[in-house]
Amino acid sequence: MTEQEWLASNEPDPMLEYLRNRVTDRKLRLFICACCRMIWPVLVGESSFPPRNRPLLLDHQRRAFRNAEVHLETAEHYADRLVEPRSIVTAYVDALGLLLSRRPLEEPWAFALVAVLRATTAGRCFYGRQWEQIPPYDGCQCAVDAADYVLKVADWAGRPSNTPQIEISLIRDIFGNPFRPVKADATWLTPSVVALGQAIYDERAFGRLPELADALVVAGCDDNDILTHCRSDGPHVRGCWVVDLVLGKG
Question: Where are the beta strands (DSSP E) in 120-245?
Answer without folding.
Answer: 124-127, 130-133
